[in-house]
Structures are given as structure tokens and as C-alpha cells.
# Entry
Amino acid sequence: MLAWTRAGDEAAFTALYRQHQGAVYRFALHMTGSGPAAEDVTQETFLALLRTASRYDSSRGTLAAFLYGIARNFVLRRIAGSRDLPLEDSAGEDDLHAGLSRRETIDQVRRAVLSLPPVYREVVALCDLEEASYEDAAVALGVPVGTIRSRLNRARAMLAKKLSGVRGECHV
Amino acid sequence: MSDENILEALETLREADQDLEAPPAVEERLIRTYRAQLRQRRWMRAYACVAAVAAAVVIAVVLQPRKTRPVFEAPSAPVTPAVAPQIVPEVRPRRPRPVQIRRAAAPQPHEGYTDFYPLIDLAPPLERGELVRVTVPASAMRQVGMLVMASHLDDPVEADVLIGQDGLARAIRFVTYQ
# Structure
């Protein structure tokens, strides 16, 4: 499909976009915590795919991993250039200990994920929230699979600490 | 909180967000951009073809310098010699001219031309030019906007290329036979 897209087949590009946009958008959303930012990252990612499709090598990973890698670059650029993202400051400890409904639980988990440092947030977003394989995550983040595993363990431990106060009240 | 509870919490978030997608406006913008890029790419190819034809013409000029015919020269100030040259008639013994037998030339089809088509948009002023007869594939006619049947794109056609004083191919016209 990527080859057809490069050859000028609009239907192939549309199909490719529809197949992968959801995952890219959600990854960007979980990384930035902002819908408009996730929209922008999704658009920039597929524009970059049009420009750099020739660099994609299927022997090195899946197209999804390639797209996650592109999206990650745009996300990190935004995180580095913006201070109004809902990161640590937005996830106060008091909020995490508040009484929760399911909706609130989801919000608390989302904020806890957003409060993680980017290197841990991205492995959680990819492996736990998008169910990407460790291999795809390794390709997307440019690190060995072992690093993905260790970062994921560390990230979950950090989340456990942040959410420890809501354990008894969570309806999960 | 145990690992199991963390995984359950993350699973809850994953299920809640699994249907989230980018708004349709993103797809619309991308499709518009994709179409624009395709149009741009096609124009680039067309320009490349015209440039290739022009380059082929220049190469043909270099390889076939004897076929040039001057067609245009800027008027220059008349040169008046200070001293009239003396003309000394040269007397040569007459020799009998060999008898030349000319065969009747085969009837040639009448040669016609199309209009000139520019090969470059902006060029220095043309002071002096030469017409060079070259043979190019019929696809060159299509490159300048003429209609050519697809089955004849590879046919050779003769063309006159106007080469400026600077060696640049300025325009091309195609030879037609009636």
C-alpha cells in the first residue's frame, strides 16, 4: 500500500491513513494530553510519511513502528517547545487520592501516565495502551528490546506509586 | 498498588480510548496536500522532459555542426573601407568543363513547418541565431503541447531548433511534409 501511495494512488493513501491514523493519534494523545496537539502530530506524521516513504525498510520493522517513530519525533519536539502541556503539574497528589467513579479513574490513570517522564511515558503509551509489540516499540524508539522491558517495568512502578492512593476506590 | 492492578488500570484506559481517532478534517487536509503534491510531481516530470528534449537538441547541435543554416543576424553598422580595394582581374586559362550529367531529382514532398515553440521561458535577447535541423522522437511534439497519437510517440520527426548566439536552444519547430 505504501508503494502504491508513492506511485500516486490516492485510494491507497486513504486506506493506509485510515488503517494507521487511530494508533498514531492515540499515541500522540497519550503523550501530549492534548487533542489539538494530537491532531497536529497525526497530520505531520503522515505528511512526513509522504516525504520520507522511500526511507521505510520493511526488513527493519513494521510500518506501524515506522509511523510511531515519526510521531514520537514530533511529540518530543512539542514537549520540548511547550510548557503548557499537562505533565507533572497537572497531576497533583490530592487529585490522585480523590474519590473516583470509573470515568474519574480513567482520568486519573491518564493523568498519571502524562505525569511520567517522556522516556517512560512513551513505552507505556506504545506497549500498554497501543499494545505494540516490544520489537515495534524498540524500532520506534530506537533502543534495544531489553531497554523497552526495563523502561516498562520502571514506568509501571512509577505509576503504581502515583496511583497507590486510589487502589481501594478504583473500579478497575 | 500491585503490578496486576496497574495493568488493569492501564487496560481500562486503553479500552476507554481505543475508539479515539483523528477528526475527519485531518484526513481531508492530508488528501488535499497529497493531491497537490501529485500535481507538483507531474509538473516537475513535464519540465524534466522538456529539459531533456532541449538537452538532446543541444547535443545534436554539437554532434552535427555542418547542418547549420544562419537565419538571423542583428544589423550592424556598415563598414566602409578607407581605401577602395583594388581589383586585379585574374586571368586563368580556360579549361574545358567536364560534362555533368544530372539525373532528374526525385520529386520531394513539399516541406512545411509548425509554429515555433519556446524551449525556455526567460532567455537573454536573441542577437544572432542559427537553425539546426535535428531528428527527435514524436514525443517531443507532445511535450510542447501538440497532439500526437500514442502509437506514434516513438516515431522520428524532423525539427528545426533555433540556437541563440549563446548556444542556448530557444525554440523548436517541427517539419511537416505535404
In short: The two ends of chain A are 39 Å apart (CA to CA). Chain A has one domain: 2-162.
